[in-house]
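User: I'm curious whether this sequence folds into something compact or stays loose and floppy. Could you predict its structure so I can see for myself?
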Amino acid sequence: KLQEKCKAAKDNPAKLQEASRMYLSSLAALRAAMLEANAKRPLQHRLSLNEIIDLSLKYKILHKLDEPARVSQEPKASGTGWRTITNFGPVARGAQRLVLELLRMTYMPAPFQFTRLGVHAAIKEAHRLITEEEHRYVAEIDIRNHYTSFDEQLLTHALPLPTAAVREIVMAASTQWEVQAVSPPFCNPIFHPTPHGIPQGSAASSAVAEWSVSKLEMVTVAVPAATVTLTA
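Assistant: Here's the prediction. I'll summarize afterward.
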């Protein structure tokens, strides 16, 4: 019911703020999101229902979400450099799923976004673009320092979320960072700073990234014997 109220208010900023605050303040909604996040964890690390209920009462996600979270650095897939990743606790993960759901209610993905489709559907859509719309070129664009570039004050004004949700859930401002001192497999002490901007490893961070990319404008550039659509 709370989700439906948020969907019904998505075109009215004032009503959406009120509906979102009610949704994020609901223990039932938080516990449901925690259960969904818990199901994705390895079996040996899953929490019992009683543990989820107890933890949901321990932290106030719109006031001070000071749940511990581990920060570590993982090698980038490119083989060059490191990426700071945060492993959040069960309450924060549940709160992040709520933010993800709220944000996805408020915008439509851009035509070049395939994030929500999943791998199989994305391949099917790419095949359709090639065979039916005769696209012939693919461009891969990497936004440098995308996550670390987000600013709390700017996001507070831009995102259709309560200010407290941006601060406590998206920016993880009150999180107790537990820095991992050793990076396997090298076992050498490496200083891992707490993440800047919005921390990677958060469902809320990926939702904000999707939301921001959906705001990019598209321009069509004519090239010999083809037309290429690029993002700007």
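Summary: Residues 181-192 have pLDDT under 50 and may be disordered. The chain has nine helices and seven strands.
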